[in-house]
């Protein structure tokens, strides 16, 4: 896969994420008497960003470990 298709995939993923966030916000605000303060929204966004960062970081470590050979079966060493 070349760099152009990679950036297209990233752009599509970001667009889908934005659509989902907007849909979630509109559904949440349309529920009626359920309000969320600005601090609540900030906590929600911060929690989502930190969760994504943790997941991305852990997956990056998995790929780095695999590429450097740390996941190969060990020998007896004798």
Characterization of the model:
With 78 residues, this protein is mainly α. The protein has helices at 3-29, 38-67. The longest helix is centred in the last third of the chain and has 30 residues, at 38-67. The mean pLDDT is 86.
Task: Please give a quick description of this structure.
This protein is mostly helical. The chain is 73% helix and 0% strand.
| Biggest sheet statistics | none
* Shape designation: elongated
Uncertain runs: none
**Separation, N- and C-terminal Cα atoms:** 42 Å
Total domain units = 2
Helix content: over 70%
- Estimated radius of gyration: 20 Å
Average pLDDT value?
A: 86
Name the structural class.
Answer: mainly alpha
Total helical elements: 2
- Reading the helices and strands in chain order gives HH
Note the topology.
Elements: H1 3-29, H2 38-67
Question: Key features?
Answer:
mainly alpha; 78 residues; 2 helices; 2 domains
């Amino acid at each position: 896969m070349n760099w152009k298709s990679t950036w297209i995939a990233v752009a599509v993923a970001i667009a889908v994420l934005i659509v989902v966030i907007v849909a979630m916000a509109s559904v949440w605000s349309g529920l009626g008497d359920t309000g969320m303060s600005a601090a609540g929204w900030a906590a929600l966004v911060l929690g989502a960003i930190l969760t994504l960062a943790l997941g991305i970081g852990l997956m990056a470590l998995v790929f780095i470990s695999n590429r450097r050979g740390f996941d190969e079966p060990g020998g007896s060493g004798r």
